[in-house]
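Subject: design request, 342 residues
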């Protein structure tokens, strides 16, 4: 599986490391090309991973045998890059969010259908053992009927984070702030656990940062088709920042993930106990989230080779984006938003 990496920035460097790590255990998987309009940046990253640098995707696709493309560009550029890759016959893995509009997401979905290629979007927290344990418990009915969930992403980003790139914090390219770019991971988990969202009521604010066009705080309640209610908090204004926390409640049990581990679970004695999740050993300098990121890459490669759907589908990524946009719309108009209307 020969990858091309689109984008040599900070997140592109993370993806390059993941692909190179995959190569250690699966020599068939390798980073063949790094593509960035800043050729110097592309060259530097390519040299670190024994690959070649290109200033444009078309040039790389013509020069190299590429099977899959990892899109690590600013958010509003995702759709065009993904569609170009799909139309060139490549499989595509897109950094979150899928893009910043539903129209863009739908264009990717149409391109996937006509190409027949595999597309996935990064939501690596689904591959954490604690999250998978809770999802299995929900699906097995160990929590009974799910009644509510709480997803908290109380992070902190200094002003320097937004000042580090002229696209950061802009509505046109970043598409959103604390929710679109940070809280979307916790939101994805909440939707994964509770099902189809039908209505959103929200508030957003810009309370701790200057010279940005997007929110650094978002809070919402989400009503689900099955009657459950979810509570969502996303912030980049919560100093010094806390780990993601997810709670899922049912009428026969509760499970809580905090600091990337299963913190609490209690199931009714009317159901059989489930085995506790196990954690893989961490590589030096790696976190549990890094492990999960690598696991999503492994899932993506396996999906391509076997022809199955990836663990995170385009439909799931579109659903998360739809809720993010509904949060923004609800905050703007000051009333609940039905997702069928968003």
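Subject: RE: design request

Done. Sequence follows.
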């Amino acid at each position: 599986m020969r990858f091309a990496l689109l984008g040599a920035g900070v997140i592109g460097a993370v993806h390059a490391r993941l692909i190179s790590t995959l190569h250690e255990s699966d020599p068939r998987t390798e980073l063949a090309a790094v593509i960035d309009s800043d050729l110097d940046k592309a060259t530097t990253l390519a040299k670190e991973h024994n690959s070649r640098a290109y200033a444009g995707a078309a040039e790389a696709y013509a020069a190299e045998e590429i099977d899959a493309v990892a899109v690590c560009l600013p958010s509003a550029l995702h759709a065009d890059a993904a569609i170009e890759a799909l139309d060139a016959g490549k499989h595509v893995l897109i950094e979150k969010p899928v893009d910043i509009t539903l129209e863009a997401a739908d264009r990717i979905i149409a391109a996937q259908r006509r190409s027949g290629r595999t597309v996935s979007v990064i939501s690596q927290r689904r591959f954490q053992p604690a999250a998978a344990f809770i999802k299995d418990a929900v699906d097995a009915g160990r929590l009974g009927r799910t009644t509510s969930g709480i997803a908290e992403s109380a992070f902190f980003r200094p002003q320097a984070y937004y000042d580090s790139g002229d696209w950061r914090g802009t509505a046109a390219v970043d598409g959103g702030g604390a929710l679109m770019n940070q809280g979307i991971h916790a939101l994805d988990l909440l939707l994964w656990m509770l099902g189809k969202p039908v209505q959103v009521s929200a508030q957003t604010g810009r309370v701790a940062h200057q010279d940005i066009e997007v929110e650094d705080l978002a809070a919402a309640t989400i009503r689900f088709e099955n009657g459950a209610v979810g509570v969502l908090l996303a912030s980049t204004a919560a100093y010094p920042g806390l780990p993601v926390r997810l709670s899922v409640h049912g009428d026969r049990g509760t499970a809580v993930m905090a600091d990337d581990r299963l913190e609490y679970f209690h199931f009714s004695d009317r159901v059989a106990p489930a085995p506790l999740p196990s954690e893989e050993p961490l590589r030096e300098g790696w976190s549990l989230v890094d492990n999960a990121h690598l696991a999503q890459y492994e899932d993506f490669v396996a999906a391509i080779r076997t022809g199955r759907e990836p663990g995170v589908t385009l439909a799931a990524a579109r659903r998360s984006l739809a809720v993010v946009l509904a949060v923004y719309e609800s905050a703007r108009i000051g009333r609940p938003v039905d997702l069928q209307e968003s």
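Residues 2-124 form a domain with the Rossmann fold fold (CATH 3.40.50.720).
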